[in-house]
Automatic annotation (TrEMBL):
One record GO biological process: cell plate assembly
Lineage summary: Eukaryota, Viridiplantae, Streptophyta, Embryophyta, Tracheophyta
Family of this protein: Belongs to the TRAFAC class myosin-kinesin ATPase superfamily. Kinesin family. KIN-7 subfamily.
Protein name per Swiss-Prot or TrEMBL: Kinesin-like protein
Localization per record: Cytoplasm, Cytoskeleton, Phragmoplast
Pfam families: Kinesin
Gene Ontology cellular component annotations, sorted alphabetically: microtubule; phragmoplast
Length: 449
């Protein structure tokens, strides 16, 4: 029976309202705990069917690999003036080639394959539309998402992330306009991690913020969260962040970002038809835009004094990020050291957790940066083996939860009255188990009421 229902939903997801899907997914979850038939499928599938109907593209299953994109930037004016040569070539949409490997008899493979590679003449809009868009926009369907930029200093991380953030926000507002049947609430927060201290980019107070453990992930204590009025409001906040972010001059980039920046947009939405009613549910998810500080070695940036201290901290965070990614790329066995840096603690859900993630690895084509470019591609190769497990985040109102638990109680009681015939079943044990379940549910209903 369950198999039949799941097949029906698989093919007809478009005909169901969000509330119906919520009801069904909650029901499936409840059934899953007692059902032996492993054909029961995860509710995430229904949600993603709904999401993909709106935005097309890849089907989302609960488990998927991190999407890895590589963006090569063109040679800069100064590099051209120095007669730098470009050593990298994107030979098709997925492969990037190191052209000079024959001459230097390199041990490294010459061709590297990723989900998508972008040549130096590709625009940020192209990187967004053909790469990051689908993942970023999962947030409107209640699925957490994250877009990272990783690469050495001056490779184009900030240049790329400014565009990606703007295009995503424009599409989100466009989506909201086209879905008047839902009420949306957008919240924005922004932080930077500078020398291993977390700072609120929306506050004039630069006191470092504490990280607190929470079952749902790490919380940044006292981080400002602005409820957005409109797009203009968000644009204003983005320019505040840009002005607040630690910028320093290194020998490679005159406006080098010295910190890791995390911009977070949280979207909550509920169907207007059900607002304030017993069965109202809310979809809630966040999209993170992460612009990491340069991944180069401190020595390469010819750092001294403050810049050297920054380099050490930046590298400590990135080193942990690299270690976490390497560990996760080999499967989720054993301990993963997320807690070794603030960056990995905050980003834990995006790294193998409840989120869809895309990493844009930015590369400088210059021969003088070849070692760093190879390190970036090594990181990218590990990242593409990492799997995340995104779920739709449905928040039920207290009333809806009570109603659901009462229904579940009634179902269990009716099961008790008419147990399924089975020759091998131990009725006494089954009864004890059901009694315990009923007791537990009754307690939950009492507490919630
Ligand atoms: N794809 C691109 N096309 C044209 N110019 C680019 C591109 N990517 C980067 N640039 C230019 O290269 C310079 C360095 O870029 P950007 O500041 O984004 O680097 P970054 O990786 O963020 O560096 P850092 O880690 O030091 O902050 C900037 O002047 C930027 O305008």
């Amino acid at each position: 029976m369950l198999k039949l229902i799941s097949e029906k939903i698989r093919t007809e997801a478009s005909d169901y309202s969000i509330e119906t899907l919520t009801e069904l997914s909650v029901h499936f979850r409840a059934v899953k705990t007692t059902e032996k038939d492993n054909t029961v499928i995860n509710c995430t599938y229904f949600w993603s069917s709904w999401g993909s109907l709106n935005y097309g593209g890849r089907q989302v299953f609960s488990e998927e690999k991190i999407l890895v994109l590589v963006r090569l930037r063109p040679l800069g004016e100064k590099e051209i003036a120095r007669n730098e040569v470009s050593d990298w070539e994107c030979i098709n949409e997925t492969t990037i080639l190191f052209r000079n490997s024959l001459q230097e008899r390199s041990m490294f493979p010459t061709a590297h394959t990723f989900d998508r590679v972008f040549r130096g003449d590709c625009s940020t809009r192209q990187v967004y539309e053909e790469g990051a868009r689908e993942i970023a926009l999962s947030v409107v369907s209640g699925i957490n998402s994250s877009i990272f930029a990783y690469g050495q200093t001056s490779s184009g991380k900030t240049y790329t992330m400014i565009g990606i953030t703007e295009y995503t926000v424009a599409d989100i507002y466009d989506y909201i306009q086209r879905h008047e049947e839902r009420a949306f609430v957008l919240k924005f927060s922004a932080m930077e991690i500078y020398n291993e201290a977390v700072r609120d980019l929306l506050s004039a107070d630069s006191t470092p913020l504490r990280l607190l453990d929470d079952p749902g992930g790490t919380i940044v204590e006292k981080l400002t969260e602005e409820t957005l009025r409109d797009w203009g409001h968000l644009k204003g906040l983005l320019s505040i962040c840009e002005a607040q972010r630690q910028i320093g001059e290194t020998s490679l980039n005159e406006t080098s970002s010295r910190s890791h920046q995390i911009l977070r947009l949280t979207i909550e939405s509920s169907a207007r038809e059900f607002l304030g009613k017993d069965n109202s549910t809310t979809l809630a998810a966040s999209v993170n835009f992460v612009d990491l500080a340069g991944s180069e070695r401190a020595s390469q940036a010819l750092s001294v004094g403050t810049r050297l201290k920054e380099g050490c901290h930046i590298n400590r965070s990135l080193l942990t990020l690299g270690t976490v990614i390497r560990k996760l790329s080999k499967g989720r066995h054993g301990h993963v050291n997320y807690r070794d840096s603030k960056l990995t603690r905050i980003l834990q859900p995006c790294l193998g957790g409840n989120a869809r993630t895309a990493i844009i690895c930015t590369l400088s084509p210059a021969r003088s940066h070849v070692e760093q470019s190879r390190n970036t591609l090594l990181f990218a190769s590990c990242a593409k083996e990492v799997t995340t497990n995104a779920q739709v985040n449905v928040v039920m109102s207290d009333k809806a939860l009570v109603k659901h638990l009462q229904k579940e109680l009634a179902r269990l009681e009716s099961e008790l009255r008419t147990p399924a015939p089975s020759s091998t079943c131990d009725y006494a044990a089954l009864l004890r188990k059901k009694d315990l379940q009923i007791e537990k549910l009754e307690k939950e209903v009492r507490e919630l009421t």
